[in-house]
Structure formats: C-alpha cells, structure tokens
Amino acid sequence: MIRSSVLIRSPWAMPAVIVGFCAALAAARADAQTAARGTTARGTPPAAPAAAGRADYRSQHFYVHTDISAAEAKDLLERLEYMLGLISVYWQKPASGIIEMYVVKDLAIWPAGSLPDEDGRLMIKAGGGLTISQVLGNTGKSTVYAKADHGTPQHEAVHAYCHQNFGTSGPTWYSEGMAEMGNYWRKNDAAVKIHEGIVAYIRKSEPKTLNEIVNGNEQTGDSWQNYAWRWALCHLLANNTNYAANFRPLGLGILNRKPVSFEQTYGAMADQISFEYVFFLKHLTNGYRADLCSWDWKRKFLAMAPGSSRVVRVMANKGWQPSGVLVKTDVEYEVNATGSWKLDPKVTKPLTADGDDAGEGKLVGVIFKDYQLSDEFEVGATTTLKPPSDGQLFLRMKSDWGSIGDNTGTIDVKIAVAK
Ligand SMILES: [Zn+2]
Prior knowledge:
By secondary structure, the chain is an alpha+beta fold.
C-alpha cells in the first residue's frame, strides 16, 4: 500500500470525549493496477481471531470488530445504520459495500497484528479515529479505526461512506464539518445537540472567520477546536433557510468533483453569511434552531411618515423578525402590542407582550444597521419607543435561544409615529 503522507498529529491535551478528532486518509492512486492490488490486500483483511473480549458483529452495511459488549455493539450498529440511512438520503446515494470498522474500548486486549493497520492503533490510542480508504476513481474501500466512545465511530463512518461511494469526502472544512454533523444527525430535528464542552468553547472564543475555516491551511486531524468551527459552519449552512437550499447542491458538487466552490456558491452573500454565522456562534446553545432564527434579508424597510402607523405580527417561535420600520433616533414611536403567546405549550397561562414576572416572554427589540446589532431593548405591551440608533427595527419574544422552537402564539404590534 502506498501512502504519501500520514495525517496524524500528536494527541492533544483536550479530552477526546469532547469530539473524536480523526484523520481521514484517502489514498488516491494514479495507477489502477496498484490500486487494485492495494484493494485486494486491504479489502478484506482477516477478521481478528476470536479472542477473549473481542467479537465481530454485522449489520446490513457494517462489519464491526470490537471489544464492547454485545448489547453495546447492537446499539452501535443501530446508530450507525440509522445515521447511514440519513446521510444516504441527504447525499442521494445508497450506501454501497460494507464499511469495516475496528471499534476499540481497551487496546490492551488487541495484541500486535489484531488491527490491520498500526496507524489505526496510534489514533485509537490517542483517543480518536482514523479512516483509511483505498480510492479508485469514484469508489473506494474504507476501513475505520475508532475509539469506542459515543461520537467517534459515527464520525468516521461518515468519512467511510463518502470515500466508498464518492471516492472523496471533499475539502477539510466540508469533510470534517459534515462528519461531525453526522455524529449528531437526527431525523426531522434541526435543533443543535452537541457536547456542552463544544458549546462552551465556541461561545468563549473569538470566532474563526469563514475564510479561515474554508480556505485556511488546515488539515484533517488537526485539533478538536478546528472541528468545532467546521461543524458550526456546516450546521448553519445546512439549517439556515437562507443557505440550506444551496448547501446540499454544493456538497453534492464537491463529492461528485464538479467545478463548485464555497466562494462560487455563497460569494454574493458573504456579508449576510458572516453576520448570521457570528450571530449563530454568539447565541449557540443546545436546542438552538438555526432554521427558526434565519435572518429575513428580503423584507423592505421604510421610514414612517408623521401621523402614520402600521401593524406587524411577531411570532413567538422565531428569532428576530423584521418590523419593516426604519427607525430614527429623533423620532418617538408609540407601540401597542396585543395578543398572547406562551413560552412553553405545557404552561397553560398565556402571556401578553409584557411577559412573565421574570421578564421572559416579553416583546423585545433590536436595531440592525450595517450588519451590526444594537443591544437588545425591552418593548413590552405599551411603550413609547426611543430608538437607541437609526436603523431597521427587529422584534421577537424574549426567550432562551435554546427553546424558541416550543414557543407558541403571536403578538400584533402596532407602531405609530408619536405626535
Ligand atoms: Zn474526521
């Protein structure tokens, strides 16, 4: 087997339980014969001989050698098949071939020779995973080595699926971002659900720019922190309604080696994406719904004439919503909000735009100008609004960003220029 480089880095100080960093190796061959030989050699390595604590398990698409318990293996195979079903639909290609995996809990019972590749052992030892693929054209044969934690086998299985079915998993930002997403993918559920350590890391960090993520000189297996940024970008693009429609075609183009690029797809929307990306990172929390918090870039905003008024409907289960009003600091606005909403459908008592005693559920506002937001300010059911700055007025129900999805109800907000 020819391998030009081995993308393995030293283990990091951060625990791999946060995210299984990995190295995905696609050993592309220029020479078909070499590839064929390599595939034969590696295609069906002998299963580890039955040994104490180790066993082999099969499902429709996976062949797993592992030392986890039979019950754990059953659970793992179910999760892997479930995820494979989701990503096969997403990437519009049924999984072909069997993905062979070595999922290791205790390396001590895997003697020399029991793992076909020593690099796999090194990666498991470091607490991560490795996918080694023999790629020929648009197909491949992958073997996965993974620490038996919750996320790493799933992450690696995404790489393996991509390599076996497309012969590539794309550039690092996409390959690793999507593998991390696959780790967390659930059907019909767009809510963020990631390790709290990643949430905490992202929220306290200076955001990496889109350019750094997409074009940075970064490699697979570099650090779990970089994986977090890649996940964040892919999650946002896959779920935000402004970008989702173009994200899947972009990914399919990448995997099918079409002349596509991030810049080509999103270049014209760079300012909007940057704004929403930073917003997403700032408010990231488990339960966050990038789809419900998508920014409305289409709404036209107009200044209001003296004596005029308008009514805008604000939904409880969405993020910032455009009022259509271009407010000015030297104008005062009379606001009267009617209707009711709930922070939780299980709570029977609806709230007015004044919210509850703690201020939750209150109508709040923010001013958007030049891709910057003012501080959030309270509006409530009745107020005379003195805008903190000129710009576009956005409104929402004050609610934890992680639980917007279960809010119900609407408020009609009448905005009139004060006499
Ligand atoms: Zn990976």
